[in-house]
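step=encode ok
step=design start
structure_in=
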């Protein structure tokens, strides 16, 4: 899932009029109801700007503009049972790595909501999720430039205790416009214990749910007869009993020929399963999933991160460390099967391994394959357009490994002033599949991290992060050293250097130095920095975007009120 660079024209005057009209009602709505019944206005804004200059050493391209900028402002008015809000976004022009179709300004998000104990109605834009998101999840993640919000009507109804119902219809955001397809969906969830008096005191808590989603898009294809209405349904169950909890969801989608699956007429299926055990000092997690042809978009011709109706969760563990995010996993809706497990244990205080303060240890393992595919009778190619595509044994994984890792993490407190985190990971990464490229093959690597914090006082602390990645493939070896000094609660100073060495594509070492200063006051924060950033991808929850190499200043300003 990656971005491309297509110019997009925004109608600025229309957006200015919307700002004036909505702003008028937000400011004067209290007067319509009387001086004694005022509401509250809250909001936040953020500005991220970066300058760019060419740098042949790291491959930073020449950018026509000296500086690019992403910014947004949210404003929400609440009074009694009513909430109303708008979000204004401006990309002048969008930062490198974000789709150029964001360029310009506009109001892509505006809503009004009425809510009481039994009913909630939203008109305008909204985000929503059914279950785990297998057939519907609308959400925003500005870090990767992702936003598939609906514009329409969303209703939530709670008729009796223990029952929750949802219904929605709308079109999805497509940059500053809307997608071609119309989406309709219903969802219901029942807490069994609340429905039966005899189960209210039971130690076993059971929740069941189900969803149905349909998308409509006219068939204008000159070659194929395409389904204009595509339906998907899902059922789920959650069971909690004492220290144990389990969650499972199965989803099914009728044939949905699209760009993603090369226009094959095959149904889609997905299964998620999670099992957890937790007690004092010990925890165990088991995750499993199978996904087959579950790309679901409101426009069958969309690509990259556009107009996804659903979301395929990942169970690979997220990390904040730089080199552990060098090769992140990207979900494969056309077919993946995987398993993951994690064990967490705390060695008690005053023991040999626990020491004075105790020691936390976690061991995590994940392995993800392609699904087994066999040729149908009517074709010699898997996935050829206009056919059923392929057959697949539901319980049989394919032979190709997409991703595998094993991670050991040890968190240790040595004194009231000194804490540290030690981490080791071995990974296998199928570059061609997960990046949508050819000729790279598998990447095998080892990553080690030492992260330490020393507190001189209640307000002064130093944080050091040292990382190393060793690999014989792709870009070879990497090392990172970051030092941050903080004066709580307002000042933060940091310097870092990423070094790429033993790179088969480049002679010598390449340094990506970076330094920044940040100041925070109440709900506001400003950060200024300068340095180099390497090329790579950024992922959140298995959804990723390309990040080109860059060299220049950055400034980030945010505030909440």
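sequence_out=
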């Amino acid at each position: 899932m990656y971005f491309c660079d297509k110019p997009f024209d925004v109608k600025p005057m229309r957006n200015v009029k919307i700002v004036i009209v909505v702003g008028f009602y937000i400011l004067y709505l209290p007067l319509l109801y009387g001086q004694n019944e005022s509401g509250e206005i809250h909001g936040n804004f953020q500005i991220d700007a970066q300058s760019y200059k060419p740098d042949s050493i790291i491959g930073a391209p020449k950018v026509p503009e000296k500086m690019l900028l992403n910014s947004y402002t949210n404003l929400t008015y609440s009074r009694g049972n009513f909430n109303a809000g708008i979000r204004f976004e401006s990309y002048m022009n969008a930062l490198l790595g974000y789709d150029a179709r964001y360029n310009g300004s506009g109001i892509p998000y505006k809503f009004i909501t009425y809510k009481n104990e039994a009913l909630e109605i939203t008109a305008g834009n909204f985000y929503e999720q059914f279950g785990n998101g297998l057939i519907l999840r609308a959400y925003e993640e500005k870090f990767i430039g992702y936003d598939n919000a609906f514009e329409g009507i969303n209703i939530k109804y709670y008729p009796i205790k223990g029952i929750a119902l949802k219904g929605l219809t709308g079109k999805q955001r497509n940059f500053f416009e809307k997608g071609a397809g119309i989406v309709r969906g219903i969802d219901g969830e029942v807490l069994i214990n609340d429905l039966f008096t005899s189960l209210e005191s039971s130690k076993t808590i059971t929740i069941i749910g189900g969803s149905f989603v349909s998308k409509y898009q006219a068939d204008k294809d000159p070659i194929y007869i395409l389904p204009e209405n595509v339906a998907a349904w899902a059922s789920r169950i959650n069971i909690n009993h004492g220290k144990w909890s389990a969650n499972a969801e199965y989803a099914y989608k009728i044939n949905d020929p699209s760009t993603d699956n090369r226009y094959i007429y095959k149904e889609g299926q997905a299964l998620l399963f999670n099992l957890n055990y937790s007690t004092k000092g010990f925890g165990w997690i088991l995750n499993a999933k199978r996904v087959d042809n579950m790309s679901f978009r409101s426009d069958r011709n969309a690509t990259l991160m556009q107009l996804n109706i659903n979301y395929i969760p990942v169970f690979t563990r997220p990390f904040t460390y730089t080199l552990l995010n060098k090769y992140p996993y990207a979900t494969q809706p056309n077919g993946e099967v995987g398993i993951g497990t994690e064990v967490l244990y705390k060695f008690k205080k005053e023991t040999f391994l626990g020491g004075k303060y105790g020691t936390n240890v976690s061991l995590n393992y994940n392995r993800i394959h392609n699904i087994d595919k066999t040729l149908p009778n009517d074709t010699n190619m898997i996935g050829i357009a206009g056919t059923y595509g392929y057959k697949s044994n539901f319980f049989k994984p394919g032979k190709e490994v997409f991703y595998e890792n094993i991670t050991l993490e040890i968190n240790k407190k040595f004194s009231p002033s000194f804490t540290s985190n030690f981490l080791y990971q071995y990974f296998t990464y199928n570059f061609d599949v997960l990046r949508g490229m050819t000729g790279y093959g598998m990447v095998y690597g080892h990553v080690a991290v030492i992260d330490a914090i020393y507190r001189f006082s209640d307000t002064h602390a130093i944080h050091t992060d040292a990382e190393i990645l060793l690999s014989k493939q792709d870009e070879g070896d990497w090392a990172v050293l970051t030092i941050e000094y903080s004066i709580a609660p307002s000042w933060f100073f940091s310097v870092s250097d990423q070094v790429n060495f033993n790179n088969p594509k480049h002679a010598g070492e390449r340094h990506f130095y970076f330094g920044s200063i940040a100041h925070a006051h109440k709900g506001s924060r400003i950060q200024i920095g300068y340095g180099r950033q390497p090329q790579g991808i950024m992922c959140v929850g298995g959804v990723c975007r390309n990040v080109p190499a860059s060299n220049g200043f950055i400034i980030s300003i945010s505030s909440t009120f």
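step=design ok
step=annotate ok -> The two ends are 35 Å apart (CA to CA).
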